[in-house]
Design a protein that fits this description.
The complex is a heterodimer of chains A (about 675) and B (about 500). Chain A is mainly alpha-helical. Chain A folds into 2 domains: about 525 residues, no CATH class; about 100 residues, no CATH class. Chain A is built from 28 helices and 4 strands. In chain B, α9 runs parallel beside α12 and α13 crosses α17. Classes of the chains: A mainly alpha (about 675), B mainly alpha (about 500). Chains A and B meet through β1, α6, α7, α27 and α28 of A and β1, α5, α6, α7 and α12 of B.
């Protein structure tokens, strides 16, 4: 399967075509094609994962005695110069000059991990949507787009070179655009779709240039080659710094990092299963995946090994805080989750920035499960509880009584997100923070702890508003059908246990062992499990929940805070800043976009019509005037007897004058006839 | 089959003339027969093209094939010299291909004042000029074909055009004629300056401008530059284009965008660069500069448009900017990208003009403000528009990407002798242009296709994509996908020929 992994993206691609052409004629309107196709890819991905593990094990088996499990083994094998290499295959896709560029697959631990995550969540979302999207006007189209998305994401995941990665990257962006604007009759939805596409595309300027720079630096698009070059002593440091910075801009755009995160909350205009699949679990982590893929460039460009501070860690840290803060002032449950996603993506990017490759990728892995679970849970609430509303304050409340499965799974997801041991989020977050603390990035470890506090608090608020208190909606809330609850349960199981893939104190470090590249990979540090840090983080999370319970569950106590924003200037200012999303949207849409679409575009067009075109018109008019003048002169001069000169100027000027006075047809005919006759004559009488 | 090799290009170029003569002999009332003759003519011509595709030796794509070299105008040693290599072949085939589709589309879309006979005759004449330009290997022959193209397009705009057709057609004609005059002057200069006194393009290319001092090369290049740049059109010589496109009938716009603009860029690659390498090096930074200005400026102008067709016209200015940027790098990388960009732009922008034409046919307006909800009233057309928009903004997996991205890439490392810094700045500007392109295209899509129909068209009788449209459009849509998925089809063809052009700059 490892060598034939190209078939994995191919299946959903074919499924897309099949649904597009035959979907409407099928008894279940194409959804069955999608589900069968994705189920097949899921099985194949699992096979690939198992085979990869066997491959690594086989390797370890043949190197017995070199070291114990995991990291130590990696080090010793590196010393011996023989390591597990990724499976790479490619065929010529295009050529240019002396270069031949390939399309193909690179299968290694990171790739199989992503294959597993993408196909699993895609499969669950496919199943979930049979109920959630039932009766939708564009049901078939929806499934076609899901298939296309899955295919594109898998193309990105298996990419052996940065160019194929770029292709997949843009294609998932297209699918995101299509699915956010799924209900395109509404202007708000299409605005959100455009915003998402254009914002990520702004980041893609960076990606594109980054890909170009790394290509010229390393002389190849191949990911392994780029990493090898970047980590070699002879690497051009300037190019690496610029390249890493440009790629970081791409990551910022795609993975919702500050300051380009503003599209992600708006993207919630799409159907909820889409939010779960694309805008929580898979597409938005494409940026992090890119960072993990060409980690050598960042490592070398940003000197990550030296600790201290670098743009990647800073961007991630800022994003953790600003995302989490915004989650507090949202009334829309999906927006809370969206800002939470922004914040969690911040952890991943910061993780990469502080040298915690395993932590970042591990967090990507666990986050995919619990965030998809939370989104699907929110969808379940709106489907069966709040009458298609996402407003927690107006239409929810008290739903735990009516929707027990949704409630318990949502609670598990929230706990996993908040980082309560031993659920998934705890382990992955801890890995990042521990590495930051031990790798010379203490400040970022602290930011991570603050973020953990905020996360736990806003999720407490979210759970309270949705499931506790009195029901404030107007429907008849009930539990969702099995097609919705079964995916929730599956994801809840993963949210509980996924963290055990890399739980150091329990002696489980399988994730690092199988996923971390052993080849063309920087010497990242392996953090020792820090009980103090883990304990502190757990304490912070629990106290945040305590504060949250105190604030939101016991309303009488809240009176002290009610109206605080009216009484206190500082509180009012802070609140306004949050409600207005730091005014970033106003800056982007009101100033930059409106400026370009309005004054700048109009000015350019004005220049076009009144300056450049005026020159052209002026030349025409001048020619006409000169021609008129010359003609008069010609008559006089001709009379005076200056034959030769006059005929010449008259002929050239006269032509223009005739054209301008509307006798162009005549001229054109004559000139064409002249060319024709002339050529013919020359052919005949040569 | 050797007779075919000898006659293929002559047939490809002059078969349409035969068809045109037959067409003109058919009485005016017999429209069916006229359409049939026109269609058959273009189809047979295209069949010759298919034959060429089969007989072309792809292992020798860098060399001229199907050569014909007969004496023509002995007085000035100008010969009837034709031949194609990997650079001309795709463009020649594109030209034949698009002409067939244009005739099919015209089947039930004849603009006022109708008169299919004259209209179809002009399309055929146009094909003569276009095919001839891509096949000519003699400067005078090239010039003649280059000029033949002007006339039919002039009449097409002037007779079948929109309300402002006279102004637009005269502007188009004079502007391009002005450029060609200077171009001809440069050709003559080359003839007299070279020791061999020939107009043969291969012979002059082999000289690489040796014997002509740098200053003269720069000057002569300027004349060619003007001729070709106006045709492309490059900023700031583009102002004829929006007017011509806005007023031209649909098929005229399609042919203009898909083929005629490429005559200019083709001229750069085939003639200006190889014949005057030193001139090219001196001019390249300026060409690159104008190209990226065109990318940004074209995009800004697009954003200010209220007319769908005019917007697409300005988008051509921006897209041809990418093509010219690729050419200006003087590298094999950039020139390959440019040729790919030319073909891709031909298919994609041609399709956009087709759709805009059908929108106008249905709604009798192209005002973006008045349109909306195309996906509701004509879903298939709406989807096709969306597809073309995505292709046009350079989405990978579709043809547009492979013209755009490699062109940007090539600017990182231009030919020796050109400033890396300058071109890297161009690279960044061009990359910013891709975002603006996404902006204006998606805003157009949003306003035209999304939402719900405006009240004035709620009860309008809107026809979705019809049979003639399907037949005309499907091949183009397939072309966009196929080239996008497997770009090597084109790159492997152009690469050997381009290496001949770029080799002189690589030293």
């Amino acid at each position: 399967m490892l060598d034939a992994a190209w078939i994995i993206p191919l299946i959903p691609a074919l499924s897309f075509v099949a649904i597009l052409f035959f979907g409407k004629k099928m008894p279940r309107q194409g959804s069955e094609i999608g589900i069968v196709a994705i189920a097949t890819t899921f099985v194949l991905s699992c096979v690939a994962a198992v085979q990869w593990i066997q491959r690594v094990n086989r390797y370890e088996g043949s190197h017995q005695g070199l070291g114990a499990l995991g990291k130590s083994l990696m080090l010793s094998t590196q010393e011996h110069g023989a390591v597990v290499k990724p499976v790479v295959h490619s065929i010529t896709w295009w050529q240019n000059g002396a270069f031949k560029f390939g399309i193909g697959i690179q299968i290694d631990g990171l790739a199989v991990m992503m294959l597993f995550v993408v196909t699993l969540i895609s499969l669950l979302v496919h199943i979930y949507s049979t109920a959630y999207m039932k009766g939708d006007i564009r049901f078939t189209y929806f499934y076609a787009a899901l298939s296309l998305f899955t295919a594109s994401m898998l193309i990105l995941v298996v990419a052996p070179n940065t160019l194929q990665l770029l292709v997949g990257w843009e294609l998932v962006g297209l699918c995101s655009f299509m699915l956010i604007g799924h209900w395109w009759e509404e202007g708000a939805n299409t605005n959100a779709a455009l915003k998402a596409f254009l914002t990520t595309r702004t980041g893609d300027i960076g990606l594109m240039i980054g890909v170009i720079i790394t290509f010229f630096a390393a002389g190849t698009f191949n990911i392994v080659g780029i990493n090898q070059y970047a980590l070699s002593p002879g690497a051009d440091h300037t190019l690496m710094v610029v390249g890493a910075s440009c790629l970081l801009i791409g990551i910022i755009g795609k993975s919702g990092q500050f300051p380009l995160h503003t599209w992600l909350p708006d993207a919630m205009a799409g159907p909820t299963p889409v939010s779960a699949l694309i805008h929580a679990a898979t597409m938005v982590v494409a940026g992090v995946y890119l960072g993990a893929r060409v980690y050598g460039v960042f490592w070398s460009g940003f000197n990550i090994g030296d600790g201290g501070m670098n743009p990647m860690a800073v961007i991630g840290a800022i994003t953790i805080l600003i995302g989490a803060a915004l989650a507090f002032v949202q009334d829309d449950i999906k927006k809370v989750l969206a800002y939470s996603t922004v914040s969690q993506l911040g952890y991943m990017v910061m993780g990469l920035g502080v040298g915690s490759w395993v932590g970042a990728v591990f967090h990507l892995f666990t986050h995919a499960f619990f965030k998809a679970l939370l989104f699907l849970g929110a969808g379940s609430v709106s489907h069966s509880g709040s009458h298609h509303s996402f407003d927690m304050k107006k239409d929810m409340g008290g739903l735990r009584k009516y929707m027990p499965i949704t409630f318990w799974t949502f609670l598990i997801g929230s706990a996993a997100l908040a980082g309560i041991a031993p659920l998934a989020g705890f382990w992955s977050k801890d890995e990042i923070l521990a590495t930051a603390g031990q790798g010379g990035f203490e400040l970022f470890a602290i930011v991570g702890l603050v973020g953990a506090f905020l996360t736990a608090a806003y999720m407490t608020r979210c759970v309270y508003l949705t499931f506790f208190g009195e029901y404030r909606g107007h429907g008849q809330p009930h539990e969702s059908p099995k097609a919705i609850t079964v995916p929730l349960i599956v994801l809840a199981v993963f949210s509980v246990f996924a963290g055990l893939a890399n739980a150091a104190p329990l002696g489980l470090e399988k994730f690092g062992e199988y996923v971390e590249p052993k080849f063309a990979f920087p010497p990242v540090i392996v953090p020792t499990f820090d009980y103090g840090l883990a304990g502190a983080s757990l304490f912070i999370v629990l106290s945040a929940i305590g504060v949250g319970v105190f604030l939101w569950f016991r309303e009488e106590e809240m009176h002290a805070f009610k109206g605080l924003t009216k009484r206190n200037v500082l509180a009012r200012g802070g609140y306004a800043l949050l409600v207005n999303k730091y005014y970033l949207d106003d800056l982007y849409e009101g100033v930059i976009v409106a400026g370009i679409k309005g004054p700048i575009a109009r000015a350019s067009y004005w220049i076009n019509q009144n300056v450049i075109d005026a020159v052209v018109k002026g030349a025409g008019l001048a020619a006409r005037a000169i021609a008129g003048g010359t003609y008069t002169l010609d008559q006089d001069v001709l009379d005076a007897g200056y034959d030769g000169l006059a005929r010449e100027t008259g002929a050239s000027g006269g032509l223009l004058s005739r054209v301008q006075t509307g006798r162009l047809q005549w001229y054109a005919l004559v000139s064409f006839a002249a060319i024709g006759v002339f050529s013919l004559a020359l052919v005949i009488f040569r | 089959m050797s007779w075919f090799d000898d006659w293929a290009l002559t047939l490809a170029v002059f078969l349409p003339v035969v068809g045109m003569v037959i067409l003109l002999l058919i009485p005016r009332a017999e429209e069916g027969a006229q359409k049939l003759v026109a269609l058959l003519t273009t189809l047979v011509t295209f069949a010759v093209g298919i034959g060429i595709l089969f007989r072309f030796d792809y292992n020798r794509a860098g060399r001229l094939q199907f050569g014909v070299d007969k004496s023509w105008i002995d007085v000035i040693n100008s010969r009837y010299h034709m031949g194609i290599d990997g650079i001309s072949l795709p463009l020649l085939i594109l030209s034949m291909f698009i002409t067939v589709l244009c005739v099919i589309y015209s089947w039930n879309h004849f603009p006022e004042p109708h008169n299919p006979k004259a209209f179809l005759a002009l399309i055929l004449l146009l094909e003569v000029g276009m095919n001839g330009t891509f096949a000519a290997q003699d400067l005078i022959l090239f010039f003649v074909f280059f000029e033949i193209v002007l006339l039919p397009m002039f009449f097409m705009i002037g007779v079948w055009g929109g309300p402002n057709r006279e102004y637009a057609s005269i502007k188009f004609f004079l502007f391009t004629l002005f450029g060609s005059a200077l171009m001809l002057l440069s050709f003559l200069a080359l003839y007299f300056l070279s020791d061999v006194h020939t107009f043969s393009i291969p012979a002059l290319s082999a000289l690489h401008g040796s014997g002509i001092v740098e200053g003269t090369q720069t000057l002569v290049f300027a004349g060619m530059f003007l001729g070709f740049a106006i045709k492309v059109p490059m900023f700031p010589f583009h102002t004829w284009l929006p007017d011509a496109h806005t007023e031209a009938p649909t098929v005229g716009s399609v042919l203009l965008a898909a083929i005629m603009l490429k005559l200019g860029t083709y001229g750069f690659i085939r003639i200006a660069l190889p014949l005057l390498p030193k001139g090219a090096i001196n001019w390249a930074p300026w060409i690159g500069g104008l190209a990226v200005i065109g990318i940004i400026y074209g995009a800004f102008c697009c954003l200010a448009q209220t007319d769908m067709k005019r917007l697409i016209a300005f988008s051509s200015v921006a897209h041809m900017g990418f093509v010219m940027l690729g050419i200006a790098t003087l590298t094999d990388f950039g020139i390959n990208a440019a040729i790919f960009g030319m073909v891709a732009h031909g298919l994609i922008t041609g399709m956009l003009f087709f759709v805009a034409g059908s929108v106008q046919h249905n709604f009798h307006t192209r005002e973006i403000k008045r349109l909306g909800g195309l996906l509701v009233q004509a879903p298939k057309m709406g989807w096709i528009l969306g597809f073309c928009v995505m292709a046009s903004l350079g989405l990978p997996g579709l043809a547009g990407f492979w013209g755009e991205f490699p062109a940007i890439l090539s600017a990182f490392q231009p030919a020796p002798g050109l400033s890396d810094v300058v071109f890297r700045v161009y690279m960044v500007i061009a990359a910013i242009g891709t975002v603006l392109a996404a902006g204006y295209l998606l805003w157009m899509l949003q306003r035209v296709a999304f939402g719900t129909p405006k009240s004035e068209f709620e009860d309008a009788d809107i026809h979705d994509v019809g049979l003639a449209e399907w037949i005309a459009w499907t091949p183009m849509l397939l072309g966009i996908v196929i080239l996008g998925v497997y770009p090597n089809l084109l790159f492997s063809l152009t690469n050997p020929a381009v290496e001949h052009v770029s080799r002189v700059f690589a030293r």
